[in-house]
Write a structure and sequence with these properties.
It is a single chain. The chain contains 2 helices and 25 strands. The protein is mainly beta. A hairpin with a 6-residue loop joins strand 16 and strand 17. The chain is flat and about 85 Å long. About 25% of the residues are buried.
């Protein structure tokens, strides 16, 4: 009987004990995937993803990260229980063609769903065609003007006009004219169309890579902008590697050697390093052509005398060339003999 009473008491206690649950948010994406259908290449698609808080505590959106081509413009950071907020995402179609799906990830304080994947799907079509559709500048020297021609037309024969052209660089000029009948025949265009001349001034362009878009603005009903990718590389008149000759700290027990590579870009004649001079006491410098690169590349061999005095040394290596724009190239030299 005593055991029965104890069992009954425990049962009463278990039934009577109230359950305690902590309040928590619950993040729900109302429409996690949005298909916007067909869009013109170059358009920017803006969409608001609705996030609902089905929990009983405030929902915090702590961070939003976007994939390539998609940008989270803004988002509601706090959503009250039972309410909704939005994550605003923008898809830039300038670099895409065909079917695409770009994701935006929202991070929340929901213990069950700490991250939500939101996706914009689209089919990107150029309603105005361009041939070749890109401008790539490849040249062996830094002088002169490089030209790439484009023709832009409507494959469906829709009428449009060019209102303006935006170049990303001051050294890249773009001119255009309405396509002639002969030019239209090259792309089987029945009517309309424009021909563009992309002219790159190599002398005015800084050394380095070119990577951007020329934007052609039009009056077309659905494609207001035609983006044309521009790429290439502007070479220096004379390229020297390394740009600074740093021997560092040296424990000299014998001759110390180093090599400087010199490459010149000169049209119409061979590039030549005629002589070299160095003002560091105890350093010899000799120039020799690189095999199989006659008239283009040279190596300058440096030799430090092991009897050089201890301490830091600084100087300049002068390279004399036949390049009219770079007759003398100066390369800093430094180091320390321990």
């Amino acid at each position: 009987m005593r055991n029965a009473v104890l069992t009954w008491s425990a049962a009463v206690f278990l039934i009577a004990a109230p359950a305690v649950f902590a309040a928590a948010p619950k993040a729900v994406a109302v429409e996690p995937v949005k298909d916007v259908g067909t869009v013109a290449k170059g358009d920017k698609v803006l969409h608001e993803f609705v996030i609902k808080n089905d929990g009983d505590a405030p929902l915090e959106i702590t961070e939003v990260q976007a994939a390539c081509g998609c940008t989270a413009t803004s988002y509601d950071r706090t959503i009250a229980p039972g309410k909704t907020g939005v994550v605003r995402a923008e898809l830039d179609t300038i670099s895409f063609n065909g079917g695409i799906a770009k994701a935006v990830t929202a991070y929340t304080n929901d213990p069950v769903t700490p991250r939500i994947e939101l996706t914009i799907k689209a089919k990107v079509e150029p309603l105005l065609a361009a041939r070749p559709g890109y401008a790539r500048f490849i040249k062996q020297g830094p002088d002169g003007i490089g030209h790439v021609e484009q023709i832009v037309w409507s494959p469906k024969g829709e009428a449009f006009e060019v209102t303006k052209v935006e170049s990303p660089y001051p050294f890249l000029k773009v001119t255009y004219h309405p396509a002639t009948a002969e030019e239209r025949r090259e792309v089987n265009a029945a009517s309309g169309g424009y021909v563009f001349d992309f002219a790159l001034d190599y002398a005015a362009a800084p050394v380095g890579a070119i990577a951007d878009h020329v934007l052609i603005h039009t009056t077309h009903a659905r494609q207001k902008v035609v983006p044309i990718p521009v790429s290439g590389f502007v070479r220096p008149a004379v390229a020297v590697t390394p740009a600074v000759i740093d021997f560092g700290d040296l424990q000299v027990t014998g001759p110390v050697r180093a090599t400087v590579h010199v490459q010149g870009f000169l049209e119409g004649t061979d590039f030549t390093v005629t002589r070299v001079e160095g003002d560091v006491t105890g350093m010899e410098a000799n120039v020799e052509p690189v095999a199989n690169a006659v008239g283009r590349e040279f190596n300058v061999r440096l030799l430090l005398d092991p009897k050089m005095p201890k301490g830091a040394f600084n100087g300049t290596l002068k390279l004399f060339t036949n390049h009219p724009k770079k007759p003398v190239v100066e390369v800093p030299i430094k180091g320390r003999i321990l």
